[in-house]
Amino acid sequence: MKAAITGATGLVGANLAVALAERGHVVRCTRRSSSRIDHLAAFGFEWAEADLRDADALTRAFEGCEAVFHCAAVVDIHPKPTPLMQAVNVGGTANVLQAVRAAGVRRLVHCSSVVTVGVSEDGRPVDETAPFNHDRFGLDDGYVLTKREAEALVLAAEDVDAVVINPTYMFGPYDARPSSGRMIVEIAQGRIPFSSSGVNNFVDVRAVAAGAVAAFERGRRGERYILGDADMRYDEVMALIAEVLGVRGPRAVCPSWLAGAAGLAGDLAWRLTGKEPMIHGNTVRWGYAQGARYDSAKAIAELGYAPGAVREGVAAAVAWFRQVGMI
Predict the structure, then answer these.
(1) Rounded (to 5) percent helix, strand, coil in the chain
(2) Exposed (0-12), middle (13-18) or buried (19+): which is 135, by Cβ within 10 Å?
(3) What is the pTM of this model?
């Protein structure tokens, strides 16, 4: 099989490209002209220059492919959708759908995010049926809203055979930016003095990559599948990262009231200077939110998904960061 991947230079896309190649498939990766690809040079992937805002370029990239895995997105914790997020996350997904149709692709696997699923209100993990409720907790930020809108476009495209995957917070190798691995890099550098008590679901990105392949092979058309592993507090996962690194982790959990004050100060500084601070209201809300608890039972039952242990994902990320000199 020949498969095309958007966002192959990112964490999910890179690990998916490796997983497909290891299974004997031909992999064609789209990239922007400015994208870094040296971390994937050893794999011999085909590369096609195609910006998500160019439907014609995407069509050319998808020609001859049986599968398209759409992993590209702008990940930003801005409180509101920015023009770039709207153009890439939403407009880019519309262009992917157009290109999939034009190129005659058999199936699209859309890499959405677990943020399009509602959050728990009672402390129990939620599944794909949980209604969207981020607005009740101030968590309806720009990334959440644009990913939700993009997912809705895919699910509404009745003429496209599409399956949606909803990964949780991932750790693993080939995180060149880095994205979620930034937490690992900053703990290694001693730049995170305090942790927080919020909860999220964490997973090894390689399990997500395998789940994406399974979604292509066995997923039901028009369905979405949460791909995660363990619900953990941020202070727990940061302690785990520090243990794997062999360094001292954050010294303590910052009280929520103090973090809230820092978030307000960050918001004020942002408005006055126009420069996004490290800590602002949105980062604090996510850092202390208790509802990001998720159940992957549907993917386990229907896809044969095997949740990847968080520790293994962290260890693989640490090994890769050390190999390339990022820590």
Answers:
(1) 45, 15, 40
(2) exposed
(3) 0.97
